[in-house]
Amino acid sequence: MAVMKMKFPFQKRVKLAQGLWLLSWCATVAGATTFTLGCLLKTELHRRAEVMDNTDIHIVPNTLMIVGLASLGINYFASKICQDALDAGRFPRWKNFLKPYFAISCFFTVLMLLTVIMSYAMTGSLESSLKVGLRNGIRFYKDTDTPGRCFQKQNIDRLQMEFQCCGNNDFRDWFEVQWISNRYLDFSSKEVKDRIKSNVDGRFLVDGVPFSCCNPSSPRPCIQYQLTNNSAHYNYDYQTEELNIYLRGCREALVNYYMGLMNTIGAGVLSVFLLQVHTVLTAIHLRFLQTAMEAVAGNENTEIETEGYLLEKGVKETIMEYLDPVLKFLLLKNQVQEGETAPVTA
Amino acid sequence: MAVLKVTFTKTKRDKLAQVLWILNWISVVTGAILFSLGIFLKVEINKRGELMAGRDIQYVPNMLIAVGLIACAINFLGGKICYDCVDSTKFLRWKLIMLPYIVCTFFFTFCVLVGALMCYGMHWELEESLDMGLTQAMRFYKDTDTPGRCFLKHTVDMLQIEFQCCGNNGYKDWFQIQWISNRYLDMSKKEVVDRLRSNVEGKYLTDGVPYSCCNINSPRPCIQQQITNNSAHFNYEHQTEELNLWMKGCRQALLESFTHIMRSIGFTVLITWLFELSVLTGVRYLQTSLENVLRQGDPNSDSCGWLLENSLMETARTNMSIIKSLGKSNQINTEYHPTNCRFFYENVSK
Fold it and tell me: How far apart are CA A281 and CA B212, in angstroms?
C-alpha cells in the first residue's frame, strides 16, 4: 500500500524538475552565504581573543561553517539530479543516491536550526569567559615589561576607547587593581610610601582610571585621578557626574555587541533554514517524480501520464528499511541470524 | 596626406565596430566609477568639514561627479552608434551626428584630463585650509557651552584619537592656547590667579595637553599635565620621551590621508582618460572608413580609415577658413573634395 499517490502528466514533471533545479541553486547560494556568515563571526570573535578566557563560544561559528559547506555540496548535488531528472536514460544512475541525499539533507537542516538555538544558549558561557578574560587584562595592565603580557595595556586601552566602556563591571574595578607599575612610582616620596603601607598586600591603589576611560563627549577636560574626591576638582560632584568617564562596563558592552552580531547572523541563518526546508519538501516532490520515472523506465513512450507516490510501503516499514543498515552498522542486530538459517536448508 | 592611414576590409570593419561596442560599454562602467569616486571624495571632505576653513575645495569632487555622468552619457551614445555601424544601412542614420560626436568627445577628454590634474593640484589648497581650520578648532576647544561650537571638543578629541596626532604642528600648540574653560577654573585659588595674571591677555595657559593626545603604545600611564617639568614625574625626561604622547601634528596626518586618497583617485582618472582616448581613436577610424565605403558605393569593399584627412597644418587652416566663412553664406568651397585610396595611389605613382 503506497502513501499519498498522485497522477503526473508530462508537463507537471517538467515544471517540477525545473522548479526544483532553481530552488537548489538558490539554496546553494544560501549555503555559501551561511559559510561566509560563519567566517565573519569567527573573525570577530578572534579579534577580541585576548579578553576571552576560553574558546567555547567558537563552536557556533565552526558549526555554521560546516553546515554552510555541507548545504553547498548537498544542494549542488540536488541541482545535478534535477538536471537529469527529465532524461529517462540519465536518471537511473542517481537512483541509489536519493535515499542518502534525503537523510543527509534532513540532518544538516536540523543542525542549522540547532546552531541558532546554540548561539542564544551560549550567552552565559560567553559572559563568564569575558569576565575572567577582562579581569586578567585589567590585572596585567601594568605589566608592560613582562613578555607575554606587554600588549595587555594596549589591548585594554583600545578596547575601552572602541567600545566606550571602562573596567569589567564598571570603572570602580580600576580602584581595586594596581594599574600603575612600580617602575614609575617614586618610592622616596612620602605619599607613595604611605599609600603602599596602608594597603594590606602592599599595592599602590588609587581612585583613578586610565585615560582610555575618558569620555570625549564630556564638556570639561577629563578628570581621571581622585575621582571620588569632590574637593580636589572645582565644580565637581562625582555622584552626579555622568559624562566625565564611560560608566558602562566592558563586559556588558562586549556581550551586547556579540549578541547583536549573533542575532543578525541568526536571522540570516533562519531564513536560509526556511529555504532549505522548502528545498527538502520540494525534494519530497522529487521523490514523487522518481517513482513516476520508475514507472516510465520500462515504457518506450516517455511522455505518458504516470503515477507517483511518496512511500512505496507504509510509514513503519519504510522507517525500518532506513534504520536497518544503520543498526547493522552499529552491530546492534545479530548478523549471524541469516547465516544460521542457511545451513538448515542446505 | 592623411594622418595615420589604415586599410580596413569588411570583416575588419565589422570586428572593429563590435569591439568598440564592447569598449564603449566598459567606458560607461568606468564613467560610473568616476561618478562614485567623486561622491566618495565629497563625503570624505564633508566628514572633516568642521576642520577645514577658508578655501572651498568642493570643486574637485563636483568636477569628478559631472565628468563621470557625462562620460556615462557619451559612451552610452557611442555604444549605440557602434552597434549600428556593423550594418551600413543603419550607419546612414548616424552619419551626420558622428563627426560632431567625435569632436565633442575629444573636448570632453580634455575635461577628464583637467579633472585628473586637479586631483593632484589640490594639495596646496588643502594644506592651507586644514591649517586655518585646525587652528580655529583648537581655539574653540573649550567653548562647549557656545552654540555652534559645542561639538568642536568632541571633534578634535576623536580626530586626535583616530589619526594618532596631537595639535596642529605638534603637541606644543596646546601650550599656546587656553583649552580649559574658565567655568572649571577655581578663581579663589592662588595658583590659578597667579597664572592668569602672568599672562598678557589673561589666558590660563598650562604645559598640559588634552587626554586625546595620549599614546596608546606608551608603557607607562599617560602624562598629560606638566609635560615640560621633568621633576614633576618620576623617571621622566620630556626631551627623550617619545612614546608618551602622539608626536605627529594633525595637519600633517590629515594631509597625508587626503593626499593618499587624491593620488589613488587621480591615477584612476588618468587611466580612464587614456581609455577614453583610445576608444575615441577607434570610433574615428570607424567613422572615416564607413564614410569612404559609402563614397565608393560597394559595401563589401576595402576602405581606408584615418585620423585626419589632410595633415595637421592643412586641417587647421581649412577649419579656420570654415569658421571665417560661417558668416558669409555666398562662398562655396570647391577645393575640399573627397578622396579615395585609388586616387591617392594614382597620384603617388605619377
Answer: 59
